[in-house]
Amino acid sequence: MTPAFEARASQRDDTPAISVVVPTFRRPELLDRCLRALLAQDLPPATYEIVVADDGPSRVTRRLLARLQDPHGPRLRYVPVTATQGPAAARNQGWRAARAPVVAFTDDDTVPDRGWLKAGLQALAGGAAAATGRVVMPLSDPPTDYERNESGLTRAEFVTANCFVTKAALQEVGGFDERFKVAWREDSDLQFALISRALPIVPAPRAMVVHPVRPAPRGVSLRQQRKVMYDALLYKKWPGLYRQHIRAHTRWDYLAATGSLVVASVAGLLGARRVAWTAGACWAGYTLAFCAIRLRGTSRAPAHVADMLVTSALIPPVSMFWRVAGALRFGSRLP
Questions:
Q1: I need a surface site. Which of 164, 259, 260, 288 has the fewest CB within 10 A?
Q2: The dihedral of CA 218, 223, 225, 231: what is its sign?
């Protein structure tokens, strides 16, 4: 932090009403866009602060905050996360450094609406421990399968891209479980921790953030399968709540597709051609059906269709691999 920035930040010791925690990792352009939206909130500047938890401490991020800091605007604070630990750990450092009794969480790639913080505070005025806002994700027309999957965030019950939690509630549940190393299920884990302690969560539909879908290369759906490893951790901790809020049953379709592929491969190696062809036909049927489901209502561009065919064949076994890896790592059953 530059000396001038440090001096401006230390001149104001008044306690804000709400602290915004923004974890970031080497995305200064996106962070800049997010911070500009936060600095333009429809609240008096002295009533809120912005805490940037940098999970890859860099001079670029420090200089960005120094450049955006206005002596008459909300206080910007920089919290370096000294080892790359993931968004859950970064958020923990952020909220523990926060000075306000209410903490708002968002991501560095969102654009909060001008009335976001005010709406969040109003939602908590009745005494709830937490509130969850509305996420808007503009999509292409028609969208790609990746964009449609990402838009599931708009229907999630509780997401750290847009939520408000009292600091007392965070202290009671211990914050985020830092074993969640990627941006996946750590928000549901916090939600379940609040529910388990009967700490009320209320909706805040007027607290809106826009979450543009970032561009992604072909085959991104395969790389994203690694995230499901953390489903096993969430399931181990909260089996009942997982079945109630996430998924009530195992992915039998993935199991069937993967099993058919394994049987076809083994039978082929052993020379059992009839078994291999039968199992291979089953696998092909599952793959084509899965591909058709993913293409329904999405782009029919040739490159997108080709990507759907290839990844539809590979997603079930890759997903099952990571589910088993998660179950072994966290000592859980397959979710």
A1: 288
A2: negative
List pLDDT tens digits, range 186-211.
Answer: 999 999 999 999 999 999 999 999 99
What pTM value is reported for the model? 0.91
Distance CA 330, CA 335 (A): 12
* CB-based contact 79:180 (threshold 8 Å): no
Distance between CA atoms of residues 201 and 321, nearest Å: 35
Q: Which of 145, 139, 143 is nearest to 294 (CA)?
A: 145
Query: What pLDDT, in 10s, does the model give residues 11-38?
Result: 445 899 999 999 999 999 999 999 999 9
Where helices occur in the chain by DSSP H, the ranges are 3-10, 28-39, 59-68, 87-97, 116-124, 145-150, 167-173, 186-196, 220-223, 229-237, 239-245, 252-270, 273-295, 302-330
